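User: Show me a protein chain along with its predicted structure.
Assistant: Here is one chain, sequence first, then structure tokens.
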Amino acid sequence: MTARVRVTDLMARKGGQKISILTAYDATMARLLDQAGVDALLVGDSLAMVILGEETTIPVTMAMMIHHTQAVAKGARRALVIADLPFLSYQVNREQAMMNAGRLVQEGGAAAVKIEGGETVAPAVRCIVEAGIPVMGHIGLTPQSVHRLGGHRPGANSDAHTRQLLNDARALAEAGAFSIVLECVPAETARAVTEAVTVPTIGIGSGPHCDGQVLVSYDAFGLYPSPPPFVKQYAQLGGQLISAAKAYVDDVRQGRFPACPSN
């Protein structure tokens, strides 16, 4: 088996070979993506939409995240497993953040956790890192703040927002985050942030200048309707699955499956 990817491996690729990350929510998908050579698997709270049929990430609980992280950790043999801290699992205080991060590692089997927010969550990031748990930051469009933002709106769309994004990124890096996700940030702003911090940046809808990219696997492979416009679809597995299921239904109805045993 190829050596397991570690946080230090990704940090060493800052400014070098780009980092590839996809989301996974179960052992089967994790195993397949792992075999494809993806660097890291993110157990995202996006499972709210693509797995549970919710409209936002807000309903996801710690119990749900632990459940799905356990499954992904069992399917991954090489890729680094990163799990999202869900809404209201880290905002109360630093001790709450550290305890819940610890649960994702100890009970869920994650190797690192991801937390949304910038300067405001930097103290919690520092506390988690000091407890020995690697942290990935997440700034720009932060889905857990959907109600405050008035919807899923792109980040850094003004000079003030750009300055705040740079401050947020620096605060996260200084707190010990090993990488930072930039979601729906203008490409040139993402370039500026990438150049301003010493840790890798991971883009999602933020252009080509980040140190790596992450996509929701259900978007990338055509399993979820109406993906964001920045997504490149590498397959249309949803359509293939529907066709295969229709063929099965037809075979059963016509008596072609199961076939009669030959004499």
